[in-house]
Design goal:
This protein is an alpha+beta fold. About 25% of the residues lie in helices and about 15% in strands. Strands 1-4-13-7 form a 4-stranded antiparallel beta sheet. The longest helix has 14 residues.
Length: about 350
Amino acid sequence: MLVMHSPWVVAQSVSDSPSLQFVPIDPGKFVMGTGDPEIHSAKNDVNLDHPYSTQIKGNEPWNEEPAHWVQLTEPFEVAKHEVTVGLFKQFVDDTGYVTDAEKNGTAIGFDPTKNDTSERMLHFDRFRVDPKYTWRNPGFPQQDDHPVVCVSWNDATAFCKWLSERDREGQTYRLPTEAEWEYVAKAGTNTWYSFGNDPDKTYQCGNVADAALEQAHPGLTEFQRVLRLNPGEGDGVVYTAAVGSFKANPWEIHDVHGNVWEWVQDKYEELEYQERVKKATKAQAKSREEVVIVDPTGPEKTSSEKFGDWRVIRGGGWNVSPISCRSGMRAYGEAGDAFCYTGFRLVRSPE
């Protein structure tokens, strides 16, 4: 039976939830993106040769280039934690909402039975589309304090709308812009991670693919990273972890590196950074190193929109190695896609 709640009760039970705490973020200027030695390395002492990987060394991450100055002019608040299974359950109980994955049977879940490592491609067989996979069953056990997964960008946006309508103080909840997300993730730093450049320290600050995952599912981590995979090394968590289980970044935000990828507002465009810097350089009549992009919100149209509404995801997750959990790492999914390694985080601002 669907249980209905009054807006006041919902506002109290959700907005005041201990797992939905917010941190005020002041406006500021930061370096967004990767790979510009003039901005990103020479001036800020960043090592562009990421340890333990050939992905970046000698082959810069093209969709993160170039590094460029961004100015955020408005304050906002960001959730300390990713939205949990328990909070999403309250949303569904209150509204009867049916997720994209439940309607379409197209979520990518995890199949723990696929442990044959005879071929590298079998890694991808572990992540498979099946109607049985939903936010209630991503293919591995979760508790109410774990980040909700197998939810689409559309589902996350619907959750934000529901919470905004029921907030007793008239505050608006939404997904962060890509620029807001990276600003918060970097937290005043300009290194690969909010804690520096050493990927091994990720294990203190985030839940990533590690020895625990490798022991449970041989080959799943090894093909991404061949070092530090001995028993007992790593973060010790196989799948998702309870939100806030790891050390927060300097601005007291948890899980910006790993646990689950997070949907953001922006449409995804491969060369967005290059295009925005090119346009701003011409408009501002300054050198590329001096250009400042103000409050970017992503492109209105993209080169691939005829194939779908592609949206950015950030932060990496439990299934990928530290290199994919860097502050500047960009990936994407279609707005109706749902993955067992992707959830979302909220920001809010006054009405």
